[in-house]
Every structure is written in structure tokens, then in C-alpha cells.
UniProtKB/TrEMBL annotation:
ABC transporter domain segment(s): 20-243
The keyword Chloroplast is assigned to this record: no
One Pfam family per UniProt: ABC_tran
Source organism (scientific name): Microtetraspora glauca
Biological classification of the source: Bacteria, Bacillati, Actinomycetota, Actinomycetes, Streptosporangiales
Keyword flag Transport: yes
Keyword annotations of the record: Antibiotic resistance, ATP-binding, Nucleotide-binding, Transport
GO molecular function, one term: ATP binding
Protein name, entry field: ABC transporter ATP-binding protein
Membrane protein topology class: Peripheral membrane protein
Amino acid sequence: MMPDAANTRSAGDAASAPAVEVRDLVKRYGRTTAIDGLTLSCARGEVTAILGPNGAGKTSTIEICEGFRRPDGGSVRVLGRDPSDSALKARVGVMLQSGGVPPAMRAGEWLRLMARFHAHPLDPAALLDRLGLSEHARTPYRRLSGGQQQRLSLAGAIVGRPELVFLDEPTAGLDPQARYACWDVVTGLREAGVSVVLTTHYMDEAEKLADQVIIIDHGRVVATGTPATLTGAERQLRFRARPGLNLDELLSALPQGSAAKESPAGHYIIEGQVAPGLLATVTAWCASEGVTTEDLSIERRTLEDVFLELTGRELR
């Protein structure tokens, strides 16, 4: 039970055109430049995750693509049209971070109302059931928990069988069961040929769901690619020990080309040729220095590692 993009796509649109195309986008708020010449493209029928630290410009970018804000420069095309084009309303679903539902309106009543705005909507009752909201269908929106409100917003975004869905932090505040249910919905959207553009702070979510990941910082794209391309095939040796180990001395004992860093304090990462002998070398060096190691493991570099390398670890 998912939207079928093929049934709603306008014959006038080229099937090969991107779902979203942004070129040299600029957005300012007073003296602050939130988006600074941003260029990106989101393919049709794929899930694109847009990642970035707080203040990176991702929410402003999404709101411009949704038609809620106007840019100060550059161009944006959504399904080949200007985001303000009223013809997009029936073809694009939008899930806001919060709000959008009258507080006193019952969940099922609101979703049925949203369904009536579309020619061939999904069955509201079945959609509520899919997202675990059936028993709350008669509950006013204001009495729903934060996670239930999130799931209802997701239902509202897809009930009209859109070709393209914008999901802004779709699983923020959800418990694990609800989060996985939303993941299943996003996977079903992709399988039905629907284009999905989502923002998230959960790196595992982006790595699990996205066909393409776009990382932005300070209003510009700093990296783009598939999760596998961005993380690469490199493996890392990780361990915990007392903070402040002499990494220069450790590196002198390791094969040439190795790299070592401590981030955060007491957590160490060794990169390079992670061969069987490397593990023995590290443990032997630590033993010679009287250092006790914990949680020593060999792991693949994650999307979170890439994100932090590109955007920094400091709080914003």
C-alpha cells in the first residue's frame, strides 16, 4: 500500500529530469547568509538524504523547494517546475517538522480530509493502521504524543499518492518500533517509484535508507555520493584507553602510512592497512606503556565518521 508515481506523473515532464534541481541557490536573513551558492540534484525514484549540522542551511533549502520561502538568488526546479507552481500541490507531499494540523481535529478525521483533496488517495484507515495509529483515530491532534503526531504528519504527506515527498526529520523523537515502521514506509515509497528527499540527524538512518547522500555545511555542499562511496571500503581499528596517549610514539611502531587520532578524549582510531599484525602491534605497544585497552575492535568507517570529518565535532 504505497503511492504509485507512474500513475500520477505528468506526461509533459521528461522522465529523466531530476525530481529536484537546485543551482547556485542563495538565501539571506538580514546579514546572515544561510545558503551560499548551493547546487544539488535529487534523482527521480530515489531516496536522497540531505545532512548537515544545525545552521548549515538544510531546512531553508527544503522550505524553498517546498515553495514556503523564496530564494534571494539562483534557481530551483521541482519536477521541472517552479516550487510556487500550484500544479505541484497534487504531485508533491510535504511532512513538516511540527504543526500543520488543527489541534482540536481528530487524527482520522484530519487524514480523511487530506485524502479528499486528491483524486486517487490511499485508504486513510489502512494508512493509519500501517503507522500504528488506528487506535488513536478519534484522538484530537493536541492529545497525541509527539511521536504519534510525527507519524500522522507522515501519513498526511503520502495519502495523496505523490510523485515526490519531502520529509523533514521524519523520525525525530520516535521510539525504535515507530522509527522502523517509518523506515518501512520510506522503503515502500522508493519501491513504488516515488522520489523522497529527507533531512535527518540520524546517520544510521541516512546510511540505511538513502540512495544518495548530500552533506551541506555553511550553506554549501561539501560532499555527495552513495553511502558506500562516501564511507569507502576502509576499515579502522578502534579502542578505548586513558586519555592523552602519545600518538607519535604509537605511530612509530605502526606500518608506514598509518594514521592515529584521539576523538573524543580516551577514544582512539587507527587508520591505514588494518592487517592482522596491526592488532598485535597496537596491543603490544599499549602493554609496554602500561596502558589497559578496552572495546578494541576493527570496524568499517561509518557515515557518522565522514560527517564529523567534514563538518567538525564542535557544538553549534
